[in-house]
Amino acid sequence: MLYYILKRLAAGVITVWFIATATFIAMHSVPGDPLMNDKAVSAEIRKNLERKYGLDRPVHEQYFLFLGNMLKGDFGISFTQQNRKVNDIIRDHFPVSATLGVLAILIASTGGVLWGALTAIYRNRLPDIIIMFLVILGISVPSFVFAALGQLLLVNINKLVGYSLIPVAGWGTIWHMLMPSLVLGLGTMALLTRLMRSSMLEVVNEDYIKTARAKGLSPTRIFFRHQLRNAILPVVTVLGPQIAAITTGGFVVELVFAIPGLGRYFVQAVQQLDYTVIMGTTVFYGAFLVFMVIVVDILYGFIDPRVRLQ
Amino acid sequence: MVESCVYQESTDAMPIIRPISALLAMLCLVTSSLAGAQSNDDAVDFASQTIHLALTQEPPQLNSMKATDQVSILVLSHVMEGLVRYDRRGNIVPGVAERWELTPKKATFWLRKNAFWSDGQPVTAHDFVFAWRNALDPATASEYAFILYPIKNAEAINKGKLPTTDLAARALDDYTLEIDLESPTPYFLKLAAFVTYYPVRQDFFEAKGDGYAADTDDLLYNGPFVMTEWTHSASLKMVKNQRYWDKEHIVLNAINADYITADTRARLNLYIDGKIVYTRLDGETYKDALTQRFRIRSFTTGSVFFMEYNHRDGRVTRNANLRRAIQHVFDPDEFVNKVLATPGNLPGESLFPVWLQGVDGRFRQEYPAPRAKVDVDEAKAYLQKAATELGRKQIPPLVLLVSDSPTATKQAEYMQGLLKSRLGLDIKIDVQTFKQRLAKMTAGDFDMVGAGWGPDYDDIMTFGDLFASWNLNNRGRYSNPEYDRLVRVGMTNTDPKTRMDAMGELQQILFDQAVILPQYEQGVIYLMHPKLRGVVRRVVGADPDFTYARVIE
Prior knowledge:
The structure holds 2 protein chains of 2 kinds.
Chain A: H1 2-29, H2 43-53, H3 59-71, H4 86-121, H5 126-140, H6 143-161, H7 174-204, H8 207-214, H9 219-231, H10 233-248, H11 251-256, H12 262-272, H13 275-303
Helix pairs in contact in A: 1-13, 4-5, 4-7, 4-10, 5-7, 6-7, 7-9, 7-10, 8-9, 10-13, 12-13
Chain B: H1 2-7, H2 10-32, E1 44-45, E2 50-55, H3 70-79, E3 84-86, E4 92-94, E5 97-102, E6 106-111, H4 125-136, H5 154-158, E7 169-173, E8 176-180, H6 188-192, H7 202-208, E9 225-231, E10 235-240, E11 254-260, H8 264-272, E12 278-281, H9 283-291, E13 297-309, H10 320-327, H11 332-340, E14 346-347, H12 363-366, H13 376-390, E15 398-403, H14 406-423, E16 427-432, H15 434-443, E17 448-453, H16 461-464, H17 481-492, H18 496-512, E18 516-528, E19 532-533, E20 550-551
Parallel strand pairs in B: 2-11, 15-16, 15-17
Antiparallel strand pairs in B: 1-2, 3-4, 5-6, 6-8, 7-8, 9-10, 10-11, 12-18, 13-17, 13-18, 14-18, 19-20
């Protein structure tokens, strides 16, 4: 077990190094640079800026400098938020994205498992058709549409009751989190519903279910102990990457609901070619994704005794 | 089967289906959007004189010596003050300086003794000298350093040729500041109101080091407000500065920026929900604001948008007759009404926007902009001439470089259609993201580029010198000795009439040579809380300016 974890961690480090290198190369091959701005600056100022940020050195030197600092856990200072360290940006804003993401995942996974199980049970009947229709909607409609609609819904609810029942944007209390996390979780919920449905349909016809029934077990017990537990495995598989995707992919939701999360920095840094923030957030998220995948693999062992970790 | 009996009981499923249909009904209700005024009103409070607003982005740089963007300038000009400031009507009035004297060679400012920093120490002439030296220091690499260039030796210092101590700005004593000018600068006072000219206290700045202006207590304030809270990317709070020398005239007690989001729809929703006092509208949200029956206001930002041609050697757009051909098919009125299609924009007729001051009144009234009559035949004649001069049978496809915003793309497509149908010119639209567009503009990799210019200070020269051969923002590299000469007259001559005459001539050159194709003067439409009065919209400096605002009952 320990050997397995160590092996996976080592592979993870190589993956993260690869992500960092690929991002670094891609970032430097894009035309333009972080120092370029709407207003042109003189060659002298330009040179001073380059020296200040170390951009006057050859690219390979910059790369090794970056790797060295990364190993020390220092991603440098942002180009656009000029007084802030990238580490501070991640530390201040990731918890916000993570809170939102965890809530969204909770909603998505409970919802997904529940709807999925239901559709499997009511296969090809009205509830199944309706839910599957909504699932297609949930997968194909982009999150900014849901975000805009969700916010409009809140505005109108507040208007109907005559006071601010639920805040339409901002961050702070659990009330602020409700709509954004629901919107953020919708896509994943739809995905999980579909996955859950198909895996549930497989399980229902397995021999051990028939055995269980023959033993005279109660339907509830069969459902929870035998069907759900077996059907849930594929769901857990995608949950890892989905958690990472949700905690990083919240850009639109964060923008619409004015949430101070990391997603905004992640996207804006690319638009602004903010080298240090791009590297910082990408490496951080890359490491996070790798970590989540490892965690999920370990969790397998607990959910499914057949899986041996070696 | 036992299973089917339990699970196929349709009544079990009903409670779950119900919320879904309810949700669907809600969504339908949402799209029909209820009309009416704000139901909730937390955006203003009369008793405490508090207002709430949303910023479009986190202020990226609150170090006044380095700030360049709108949001940072907005915040800074509420919490800090320079030698002079703008009043409600846009006139220069005393700030930290009580009075001043401006001659062609020298500027002298006498500072008031009741101007204090937020820690209680007085604001002195040394604080200005320090800030200016620091902004000019090549190591600081301030992008707005050029705005200090009228001070003697400033440019040489900024280029590393002289030490910062050579700056000809001296504190004769704590309250007298004397400045030698490089050359006569009739608009120096207007420059002195800009953020780069704000004071910074040396001991505080040095104690903070790299962390200066990173947080509320990493900055000293001397303006009408002080910043008390700042949660990055989330909110920012400014309260009335009890040490401000003119606090009697400041009515607002608190300005709370509770939200930071660039999404205009989100801000409109916050406005409808009564959470913020102000929001700007765009083409889409404008329609929604109309159905809500809000009073929509408009304001001209002072920026001019135009198509810039590439005047570099070897480019076909270097040919004046080709540019004239385009000039004679383009109708700015149609562009504003049909392409932009939101209220507030003015047709572009000149590089100089309508609000600029002339000799006595507005420049554009004293020197009306020449305007080309739309005439396809004349345009075709120009095009024919251009083809002959270029020795080509046909003009090759022109590359029109634009940014990736929906509006820019729409405008480019209009130009493409117009030039194809009227002149048979082929246009290749090159859509690029922000930085890539800049890179291509700098490298000269375009024939035409959608560009714009906003004023840095309240004088005609902020536009006039744009196409001087030495100006780095002249991305098309237009170069004309006569134009350069006129710019020098405008920059250094102290007689208003001579200056404006020169600018009038310059306007004529821009037209005759069709150096650029003016498209529109930008207008913005916005909503402002009806109970909030005295908010000033400015073309230069903080906009909107809440300094003198008040909440009415």
